[in-house]
Amino acid sequence: MKNLLCSSALLAALALPAMAQDYTPDPAATPGGTITVTYKDDVATLDPAIGYDWQNWSMIKSLFDGLMDYVPGTTELRPGLAESYEVSEDGTVFTFALRQGVTFHNGREMTAEDVKYSLDRVTNPETQSPGAGFFASIAGYDAVTAGEADSLSGVEVVDPLTIRITLSRPDATFLHVMALNFASVVPQEVVEEFGADFGTNPVGTGAFTLAEWTIGQRVVFEKNADYWRDGVPYLDGVTFEVGQEPIVALLRLQQGEVDVPGDGIPPAKFQEVMDDPDQAARVVEGGQLHTGYITLNVNTPPFDQLAVREAVNMAINKDRIIQVINGRAVPATQPLPPSMPGYTEGFAGFPYDVEGAKAKPAEAGLADGFTTELYVMNTDPNPRIAQAIQQDLSQIGIEVEIRSLAQANVIEAGGAGEAPMIWSGGMAWIADFPDPSNFYGPILGCAGAGDGGWNWSKFCDEAIDATATEADSFVDPASPERLELWSQVYQDVMAQAPWVPVFNEQRYTMKSARMGGADALYVDPVSIPVNYDYVFVTE
Q1: Where are the alpha helices (DSSP H) in 14-82?
Q2: Are residues 390 and 448 in the same domain?
Q3: How far apart are the C-alpha atoms of 304 and 293, rounded to whole Å?
Q4: Phi, psi angles (nearest 5°) of residue 159
Q5: Is residue 57 part of a domain?
């Protein structure tokens, strides 16, 4: 897909400000009304520097803005808080002109100082942001992460409405990074007032404000009447009800009490829904850059031995697991999904070979097998998938105890390195942006392997990291040489087997009969799962 970064590389040579196509308000949209969204688990945090799960991603995106953004329902970049930007000829200096008159929810005007503070904060090791590694190309990043500096030398306030960011190398993904939640602009005084509790007292510049948070019951958003984008949001508010079992949520949707079941269609009810024309008409299907996988903690014996990791890869019956989710996926052979640039066509990965897998533990001195733990999110179908994994591994002498927990608890255990194995379902990787880099840095690279990071395998290979850095040090993200490097990165990763890639899944959700807006907004690739700023109600 052509994106704005490709265009900006050409514009940069002419030193012209890069402008993005904006979004035309939907003429059918009716302003007003509120909707109800359900989730089984409570919300972990609404701090954009920390939140990084399926549940809170779109919530955070509706509370905060960054310099860059996406055209709703697409992966096409457009300016956000930046009205325009210029890029130097060598692709290392980005100068952003900020919009005038944008205010935080507390009424204070946003300035370039806030942008600098926010980028310094997200890269500060004390913040423990799982997204810090995305900013590694900014000059001064290494000094900040090493504790040698408390500010990024490459981020410069030119004047109250101009910010200049200098990179230590070209970075083909940089404008996408500026559109991530992690790059959201936050007010320093509010962060300092609430400290660690900023995640439950969020203040941004976004389309909605936080009106209520009753732990274990609901989170309520209200429309930001002073939002800087004209005409949106359409809704007056969104109520997120938590503690709702997905099957109960589906029943309430059928009764008109719920507008979007946040956890999706329960697999046990999927066929029933699809066989009913009235319900099937409210199902939204979308492709996604997704891989579901099992992480193997390479720092936890016996997964510190390659032969054991190879055995697990060879023992998993991926076709049987796909049956658990009603066939809504294809088997995965590598971390990248097939539609992602850099995917290696014809790469076979590890074969399903139970007899071959049985011989592997003996190579590691574990001929009698061993016992381990598999962490899994407690929302169906993930516990059933965990049971299938458990059964597969029992065939080769690996006894697995399943730890079925709330999403936030699994993420916490993974980030802390406490989980020997994790089934990623419900948290499985969906690309933050359509570039092969995004499947490496946060979940397989050294930068994501620290405390709180999403590299739950704790895999870190400095040689592969170096190749990944080389792959991103291009101005043109679509360069064939760059994509070949990324292909090599993922083949090298699979040779060390820190993961079991299991499947690439299609995405399905539902909406109530009164919901309006393009279907793409309900399977928005960057506002997962729903772009609340642009949906509306018709009654």
Answers
A1: 57-63
A2: yes
A3: 18
A4: -160, 175
A5: no
Residues 429 and 340 in one domain: yes
Say how far apart CA 433 and CA 341 lie, in whole Å: 11
Rounded CA separation 265/149 (Å): 48
Provide the residue range defining the domain that includes 174: 4-27+65-199
Give the integer Cα–Cα distance in Å for 132 and 448: 8
- Could you say which of 199, 216, 244 is where a domain stops? 199
State the pLDDT confidence band at 434, using cuts at 50, 70 and 90: confident
Q: What is the DSSP letter of 159?
A: E
pLDDT digits (tens, 9 = 90+) for 313-348: 999 999 999 999 988 899 999 999 988 889 999 999
In tens, the pLDDT along 198-238 reads 999 999 999 999 999 999 999 999 999 999 999 999 999 99
Pair (442, 368) in one structural domain: yes
Question: Using CA atoms, how far apart are residues 171 and 122, in angstroms rounded to an integer?
Answer: 18
**Burial degree of 279 (CB within 10 A; 0-12, 13-18, 19+):** middle
Q: If you ran DSSP here, which 8-state letter would residue 255 be given?
A: T
Residue 52 lies in a domain: no
Q: Among 164, 114, 117, 166, which Cα is nearest to 138's?
A: 166
List, for residues 301-315, the tens digit of each pLDDT value: 999 999 999 999 999
Residues 514, 391 share a domain = no
